[in-house]
Design a protein that fits this description.
The structure is a homodimer. Chain A is mostly beta strands. Helices cover about 0% and strands about 35% of the residues of chain A. Chain A contains no helices and nine strands. Chain A has a six-stranded antiparallel beta barrel. In chain A, strands 5-6 form a two-stranded antiparallel ribbon. The first copy, chain A, is globular and about 45 Å long. The two termini of chain A are about 30 Å apart. The C terminus of chain A is likely disordered. At the A-B interface, strand 1, strand 2, strand 4, strand 6 and strand 7 of A face strand 1, strand 2, strand 4, strand 6 and strand 7 of B. Strand 1 of chain A pairs antiparallel with strand 1 of chain B.
Chain lengths: ~140, ~140
């Protein structure tokens, strides 16, 4: 490996407030019956929300803090009857860097709190970035 | 803020090898004329590629290592005639956690090296995660 495999410090910019409390009861994807949730942004990054409005389609990036980082192969959707598959070919939360990608719609904004949905991340999940969807696409 | 705004250590899992060498000459999005590139994965995560094949649509997540992390408002596409906008409403690489999201197609796999395209990240950009697109959508 000739490249530089450094580490980087990711700072939580906010936190998910959700009725979902246990990872094993959370849907695999937002589109599979996940509830709406609030994202509570840190005061230090509130200016980054400027011009975001209800109705916007966003990609929320989370740090799936309860995940295992030492898993490289897994069974799709936890189904042990399926063959082992490399984690980079799956959306498993268990992976070297447990980042979650969540396409959501903004439902309401109150100060530095955003109501979004649907969101399958559990209560207390750290949020690390928010980006606009470049074009609405319900399922990716 | 009642939540826990911790920091997390993100480890590069690989690196981009691209003919693009300067950030100011890179397209804003892969769909805007970006070249194909190789992703050279670290030996320690090679098993995570299992079952990825040429033709697969993936989302590559990078760490945009040349970005500024102290920027909260920016001009869309660097156009100073446009109003300042919160970075979370833009795809600007300058943001508190400079994660890049890149939808790509796998063109070739040789060992732990993946040829993908199009990719607007510059040569040397660290890769931190790879996920499947849940459904092909060319533009998000």
């Amino acid at each position: 490996m000739t490249g530089n495999l450094d580490s980087y410090s990711l700072h939580a910019i906010g936190i998910v407030r959700s009725p979902l409390e246990a990872r094993n009861r959370a849907p695999n994807q937002g589109s599979e019956g996940a509830p709406d949730a609030w994202i509570e942004l840190a005061p230090s990054v509130q200016d980054g929300l400027d011009r975001i409005e209800a109705g916007d389609k966003l990609i929320v990036i989370t740090w799936l803090h309860e995940s295992r980082r030492d898993v490289l192969k897994t069974h799709l959707r936890g189904d042990m009857s399926l063959p082992l598959t490399g984690v980079f070919a799956t959306r498993s939360p268990d992976r070297p860097n447990p980042l979650g990608l969540h396409p959501v719609t903004v439902l309401e904004i109150v100060g530095r709190e955003l109501k979004v949905g649907p969101l399958e991340a559990i209560d207390g999940t750290p949020v690390v970035d928010i980006k606009p969807l470049l074009r609405a696409s319900p399922d990716w």
